[in-house]
Amino acid sequence: MRMAQPSLFASLRWTVSELTRYLRQLLESDLMLQDVWVQGEISNLSRPSSGHLYFTLKDAGAALRCVIWRTEAHRLRMNLQDGLAVEVHGKVSLYEAGGQYQLYADQIRPVGEGALFQEFLRLKDLLEAEGLFAPERKRPIPSLPHRIGIVTSPSGAALRDMLQTLSRRMPLVEVILAPAPVQGAEAPAALIAALADLNRLAQPDVILLARGGGSIEDLWAFNDENLVRAVAASEAPVITGVGHETDFTLVDFAADLRAPTPTAAAELATPISRADLWAGLASLKSRLGTAMQTAVAARQRQIETLSARLGFVSPERRILSYRQQLDEMERRAVHATSQRLKLEQERLRGLERRLFTLNPLAVLARGYAVVQHTDGRLIRRVAQARPGETLRVRVSDGSFGVEVKPSTEE
Amino acid sequence: MANQKNSPIESLSYEEALAELEQIVRSLENGQETLEESIAAFERGQSLVQHCAALLEKAALRIRTLSGEDTLANEETEI
């Protein structure tokens, strides 16, 4: 589209829509207008049910229509109301149906915050360049601190939250409170003194520097350059818990650890809780019991093994074996003896039989007789017997006397 | 560690008691001691467990406040 020559006689070349679209494109092609902060006072604020916000930003000389879409409106960190002096960020464009140029806003902050933010960035760059925020400066937080220093307001909710958290998580610790105001002109110097006192007098294992939530002005003491330097120089490691999750202050960058809230700072200061200690103790207790049982069982096995080996090498076995040999020999001895006895008996009977057959008296049983003198001399020949002499005649069952008669020749 | 062996258990801090308990358990697990030694170690271990449990049981947060220039106030606050 070309720029038309202004001429009373020229025919109508543009429709309203065309011109309006052209103007909108003109506005949107200007980079400065697409990323702009505008300061003014809110008026005619309206919140229709659509969730979008409409208001007019004005100052003494002019007015600017502003829109905040619902999705952006949800993210606003402050409550808008008529009469409020604010700085609005957004892009300038044109609402074609209404023929109105307006600011499509995405961020709003109170007046003054912008200047503070500039100062914040300047200090942050300065201290960062000095290396105060360097990761290698960060010290580890002890896992089981004995003594925890707290720098905060003695009357704030932050202190109550931290003490409750510490008491719940790790009541074995000792807390040293160094009270100091956490906002106002005197706050930075008081906070610095409290940090120094803590380090010097109490030598805590870790220090919590904390404050509850508030506006950026309320938290401003924690952007103080000297306080940031004191935090970086603290002997004990420092955990900061200033404001809410979304708040970042310069002490957060200088701290050894940054917690989103005071409660979270107290949690980070006690990595090991009482519950963890209970669990660890229970585990040690069970290991102790198991180790002892194992030790006793091992010795029992040792005893059993030795006892078995002792049984194997015991003389009892040999004694039994000897005993058996003895029995065997006894048996053999008895056997041998009885055999011998039988033999002897046999022999005796044999002799007896032989004796019997040799017994001269046995002949008598067959009818023979023995004739003897009375003195026992045997009569073998006739000549030995004289007539008239008395002789003894022995027969099988006894003897009797006879008188010799004169012999008659046969 | 060795010089703690004979110190009365009541006077040990939680960390000291826990450290000695861990050492006892480890050496019992290694099983290098005589039976007599291991029984003594076991008994001391049991006492250490009880001591630690008692410390955990009755622990209450001690809070002191730095006040004035160079003093550490002795006031103790129960939460």
Give a written overview of the molecule:
The complex is a heterodimer of chains A (410) and B (79). With 410 residues, chain A is α/β, with parallel strands linked by helices. Chain A contains eleven helices and 13 strands. Chain A has five domains: 16-111, OB fold (Dihydrolipoamide Acetyltransferase, E2P) (Beta Barrel), CATH 2.40.50; 116-135 and 145-272, Response regulator (Rossmann fold), CATH 3.40.50.2300; 278-309; 330-359; 369-403, no CATH class. Chain A has helices at residues 16-28, 70-74, 113-129, 157-169, 187-202, 225-233, 250-254, 262-269, 274-313, 316-358, 360-365, and strands at 36-46, 53-58, 63-68, 85-95, 100-110, 147-152, 174-179, 206-211, 238-242, 257-259, 370-372, 390-395, 398-403. The radius of gyration of chain A is 68 Å and the shape is rod-shaped. The N and C termini of chain A lie far apart (211 Å). The relative contact order of chain A is 0.06. The longest helix of chain B has 24 residues, at 35-58. Chain B has a two-stranded antiparallel ribbon. The model of chain B is unreliable at 69-79 (pLDDT under 50). Chain B has one domain. With 79 residues, chain B is mainly α. Chain B has helices at 14-30, 35-58, and strands spanning 62-67, 71-72. The A-B interface holds A 144, 146, 154, 163-164, 166-167, 171-179, 194, 197-198, 201-202, 274, 277-278, 280-281, 284-285, 287-288, 291-292, 294-296, 298-299 and B 14-15, 18, 21-22, 24-25, 28-29, 31, 33, 35, 38-39, 42, 45-46, 49, 52-53, 55-56, 59-66, 70-72, 79. Strand 7 (174-179) of chain A pairs parallel with strand 1 (62-67) of chain B, so a sheet runs across the interface.
